[in-house]
Amino acid sequence: MEPTHLNPATFPTLSPPRAWAEIDRSALRHNLAVARSVWPQMAMMAVVKAGAYGHGLEEVARVFAEEKVAFLGVANVGEARRISDAGLQARIYLLGATWSEERQEIVERGWTPCLSSLDEARDFSHRAEQLGKILDVHLAVDTGMGRGGFVIDQLPAALTELLQLPGLRIEGIGSHLPSADEDEEFTRRQFQQFAAIIESCGGAEPFSWRHLANSAGLIGYEPKCCNLARPGLMLYGINPLPDSSLGLRPAMSLKSRVTLIRTLPAGHGVSYGRSFVTTKPTRVATIGIGYGDGYPRHVSGNAPRVFLRGRFFPILGRVTMDQMMIDVTDAPEVIEGDEVELFGRHLSVMEVAQKADTIPWHILTGITARVTRLYHDGLD
Fold first, then answer.
1. pLDDT tens, 177-226?
2. Tell me, what DSSP letter sits at residue 372?
3. Do residues 241 and 220 make contact, with C-beta atoms less than 8 angstroms apart?
4. What pLDDT digit, counting tens, does each position of 121-130 carry?
5. Is this model's pTM higher than 0.85 or not?
6. 305-308 and 311-316 strand pairing
7. Catalytic residues, which ones?
8. Residue 246 falls within a domain, yes or no?
9. 347 and 293 share a domain?
């Protein structure tokens, strides 16, 4: 489906879908500039996996490619293919392991894989040799994530063979932080360990790229052994370390509209399970969005709220698949058709995630395909 471009001059006259997400490209650029300012000597790999955290893969990747990031980080070949087919001029880095059926395309297209095993490396080298190519690759080292990469004590022996594979050029080395936003002591040990690994492999010189820091690692630590960072969440305007102040701007605003307003009598249930029952006549507005659009059902009962006409209003009862209800008793000015913000510039996705007992990554990547993405360059 072709992306929809929002024209700020005409948008108020359009008839939008019931649920839509406004994506602010100027916020993406701003957040990348903030990431670059934290450690100016550090190059950036913009992580755009999972549909650019739900913001739209091709459109967001285009923004970061125009900003000359060193790499675009994706999870798999399908995402890499979409970026390449969009004609974007940027290096593509595959953050996860690959299997044999995918590797021919990786070599042919010149994408950069990370290697977690000698079997992967041998296969890539053989395919590259057959095509008369040398493939740039990065070594993945497992410093505590447990998801992929060479186990540390196996790396020296593996490196001896890796350096002899004729179809590969070992261009970089990286690892992953599993708890940079939760366990400071362990994370600091990871940075120290990663620095020691680089030294044991001949120092920084053999590796053009050395990377460990995600958003939290970039913001909260001193990745002196690295020259490349892999920010994800912060690029979309959410600070994984809320105690720090960076001036990030949310790139996504999830919105819907009031579809119906009624006054319910005292003693009337609202939504499934009748977990909320009115105690007085209550003016209830129905909103055209629900968990079928990706708004989390689990906020129900945890005092969730929405932003409407410059104010916050409580969600009543359970969020349903396609709709939710809010209490507008004290706001007679609210009418059908009014725009409602579920999260965005006025209501943080972090708050929504906390009330749903989950994480903002989960909320953003869970916004479903039936929510239209509208792209703009600032609406101020």
1. 999 999 999 999 999 999 999 999 988 999 999 999 999 999 999 988 99
2. E
3. yes
4. 999 999 999 9
5. yes
6. antiparallel
7. 49, 272
8. no
9. yes
